[in-house]
Every structure is written in structure tokens, then in C-alpha cells.
Specification:
- Helices cover 45% and strands 3% of the residues.
- It has 7 helices and 2 strands.
- The longest helix is centred in the first third of the chain and has 23 residues, at 2-24.
- Helix 3 (62-75) crosses helix 5 (134-145) and helix 5 (134-145) packs across helix 6 (157-166).
Length: 183
């Protein structure tokens, strides 16, 4: 009798393991999620939804979406930053600089080292976000440059592409002195 139960219990055990691991998607063996479609509403629809819900259209813009999903974890939702670590973007001289290449370079290649802004010292590290598209970077910077009292002009994808092309060989993050140099 034992001999007949062994193959049956082995089959049940194997089947149970298969069911458990298929739900976990172990190393992508059973399902693939990298090609699932992602719906992105057009800006006009986002703005209409924002207006209907009582929020302003700027906070529902593509730039606000990029900022919220990527930048706000460090710079905070209202651009106030984190004391001692991440500088505020609200009122930021670099964010509002007439030379938009500075904030573009920061996003593309990151930043490291100690800086002083408005009499306060910060010593955080900003990661490179060059994996973002030129459009996403332009949208995020346009949002930052026109939010929280900032009043700088829009950034275009062509400006981002130009800076990306000029700095394509760059291997590391910017430091303060280097960032202040013209591109």
C-alpha cells in the first residue's frame, strides 16, 4: 500500500508547489507583465477630471504627474524640500534660472556635495534621471518653474535634447562649482 501512496503524494505535492509558485510569478516563469498596456489619459482629459474634482489643472498636468511620482519623495509635494538634505524647489534660484540648462543638467546627471541655499546648508545626493524622456523632463521642469511662487519660463523637449546631446559623455553627478559653469 505504501508504494501506491508514494507516487500519489508526490504528484499532489508537486501540483501544490506548482500552484503556489505560479501565484508568485517566480522569475517570470509563468506570466509576463512587462508588455501590459498602460493607459495615460490625454492632458485635456486629466485637466477636465481635475476641474471636475475641484483641483486645479496645473496640479494634474503631465509635469505635476512626473514631479509627484519621482521628485516629491525628496523635494516634497509643495517643493519645500527636507532641511539639511534636499533643498527646496519653491523659490529656488536654480529652478528659476534664466539658463534652463542648469536644472536640466541636474535632472540628467544628478548632484552631489554640499550646497548652500538661502543661508541653509544641504548635503544630499540627487540621482540621475536620464532614463526619463526629454518630454518628461521638460514637463517636470516646466511644472517646478511655474509652481509654489516660482515664475520662470517653460522648458521644451528640444532644450532637454540639446543638453542631453552636449553632456552625453558625462560619467557622474554635478558638484556645485561645476554646475555654475556655462554649458
Amino acid at each position: 500500500m505504501k508504494n501506491k501512496l508514494l507516487p500519489f503524494s508526490l504528484i499532489i505535492t508537486s501540483f501544490t508547489i506548482l500552484l503556489l509558485t505560479s501565484g508568485c510569478n517566480v522569475q517570470g516563469l509563468f506570466t509576463k507583465y512587462d508588455d501590459d498596456p498602460v493607459y495615460t489619459a490625454p492632458y485635456s482629459q486629466i485637466a477636465a477630471n481635475a476641474t471636475a474634482s475641484g483641483t486645479d489643472a496645473a496640479s494634474a498636468s503631465p509635469g505635476a504627474q512626473v514631479f509627484t511620482s519621482i521628485c516629491s519623495s525628496c523635494h516634497q509635494a509643495k517643493g519645500q524640500g527636507v532641511p539639511g538634505t534636499y533643498p527646496p524647489l519653491a523659490g529656488s534660484a536654480i529652478a528659476q534660472d534664466a539658463d534652463a540648462t542648469k536644472p536640466i543638467r541636474l535632472i540628467l546627471h544628478g548632484f552631489k556635495g554640499q550646497i548652500e541655499r538661502n543661508g541653509k546648508t544641504y548635503n544630499g545626493v540627487m540621482s540621475s534621471w536620464k532614463q526619463l524622456s526629454d518630454q518628461e523632463i521638460a514637463d517636470a521642469l516646466t511644472y517646478v518653474r511655474s509652481s509654489w511662487g516660482n515664475s520662470a519660463g517653460a522648458v521644451t523637449p528640444d532644450e532637454v535634447k540639446s543638453v542631453r546631446d552636449k553632456t552625453t559623455g558625462r560619467a557622474g553627478a554635478y558638484e556645485e562649482a561645476e554646475l555654475q559653469q556655462a554649458l
